[in-house]
Amino acid sequence: MKPSLFFRIASVLLLLFAIGHTLGFRSPDPQWGVDSLVTSMHSIHFNVQGFDRTFWDLYTAAGFYVGVFLLFSAILAWQLGSLAPQNLAPLRLTAWAFALVFVVLTILSSRYLFAIPVVFCSLIALCLILAAGLSHKQSS
What we know:
Blueprint: H1 3-24, H2 35-43, E1 45-48, E2 51-54, H3 55-82, H4 85-88, H5 92-112, H6 115-139
Antiparallel strand pairs: 1-2
Helix pairs in contact: 1-3, 1-6, 5-6
């Protein structure tokens, strides 16, 4: 198998993850019973470095940051999957670092989040590990 296949699979998973996260992170499930918390996050204002902000603003920014990171990761995975083996070889450290990031995100998701991000991060990490390993074998 070629590393490009696993980079491309990771890219599609990352794009789906980015879309799902961006569309869903600001919509808590009513069954969670966090309406009063969300209302507080919207209504309590404070001043940070001359800017009037709420915790909802900070939460929203963090959520969009994650969405942008996932979208960038999808593009990076697609680009890595487009490279010829001889052009991918000098990026071996990048490919392994990319895989390691998603291994760590899988661990963090398992500890602090729930099934959907755990599954996405696990599958993405697996694809990136396989791609990095195969790119090493192809260039040897």
